[in-house]
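Our working data are protein records whose layout never changes between entries. The record below serves as our worked example for the rest of this section:
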Amino acid sequence: MKVRNRYLAIVAAAWVPCLALAVAFWLLAVRPQMLRARALETKLEEAKKLYVVAQAAAKKADQARMAETVQALRCRVSDFAVELEAAPDLVFEIAQLASDTGVESFAMRPRTKQGLAAVRGCDHIGEKRIDVSFTSRFHGFAALLNALERHRPVLFVESFTISHSRLQSAEPQVNMELAVLVEKPRGS
């Protein structure tokens, strides 16, 4: 039994350092190379996908289809955002909507004197806020609200408050905050 224990101790003394060296070699040399190889394989797959897309984009039919798609998306943007040059005309359109719906004491002013506010996630779209106030019964208020929400490009009614006057004959005072999306110039 003594001989066997001694033999196991010698074998363990020889194999444990060898095993520790093998694990250290694997951790320091082989594993980083495996990780780099996986990263390179991922980059290669991405490059292959880009190559396939580039080949498809080089075809005339696909170029025409993509141009149609871009044009359709530009038309869709115009449903939601007004061009910067047309933004001043929007004030007159809102005033005309108010006139058509029969609200009284209509007043409008920009919320800030600064230019366009940034819209998160949009590089080519800015936001302009407008405060609107008027007096009206519920029917006039609902008609104007409906007209504003249906307008093209869309006018977003962010918030509104209705306060009733203490005088019996006075109509309720309505304050609205409108948000308008405005396309920034292409160069900016």
Remarks:
- The beta strands are 81-83, 104-110, 117-119, 122-135, 155-163, 173-183.
- Residues 99 and 148 are 12 Å apart (CA to CA).
- The chain is about 55% helix and 25% strand.
